């Protein structure tokens, strides 16, 4: 298992035994990125959250059948993908759009889904790297990356001078550059830049 696949408090053996705390750790780690994955397909946050939640429920019902985190993630991605496509198909049927399902389905074929999986995995790698930083860098970058706050907003929220936030953010980014792949480091910079606009 790579560092990106290690989840604090999670054990595949414990999950197979039905340990709820291990399942909760898995849920807390994967739920937000998988909502993002579903959102990119459906375009609707509440639907994405519902589909992701349903997929975790299915996972819990079958918890004895998984032998690795990779197998769990594969199951969740496939389950969410299918749930999203079923939702889209149902919506199209419900509102009787004139475009037929065959042409609309083309935009949701595997290359697009694979791209969304790659983007979601990049977000997971970035979140994991941020969680491994020293506490003062971690909290600043968490607020910038996960919540999209500007440095002035972070300073106000944490009760720190903005210069301290600027320095901690810059130092945290330097540390992340050493641990993230070049592609994911560039993704981090892009997301942080969008949050600062």
Descriptive overview:
The chain is an all-alpha fold and 197 residues long. It is 77% helix and 0% strand. The protein is globular and about 50 Å long.
Give me the secondary-structure topology:
Blueprint: H1 12-16, H2 20-42, H3 45-61, H4 69-95, H5 101-105, H6 110-131, H7 135-145, H8 151-158, H9 162-179, H10 182-196
Query: Biggest sheet: strands, sense, closure?
Result: none
Query: Helical region count?
Result: 10
Q: Which radius of gyration do the C-alpha atoms yield?
A: 19 Å
The fraction of residues in strands falls at under 5%
| Number of DSSP-assigned strands | 0
Output the helix-strand order.
Answer: HHHHHHHHHH
Poorly predicted regions: 96-109
- State the end-to-end CA separation: 37 Å
Structural class: mainly alpha
Shape: globular
> What is the average of the pLDDT values?
81
User: Helical amount among residues, as a percent range?
Assistant: over 70%
Name the descriptors.
10 helices, mainly alpha, 197 residues
Summarize the model shown.
By secondary structure, the chain is mostly helical.
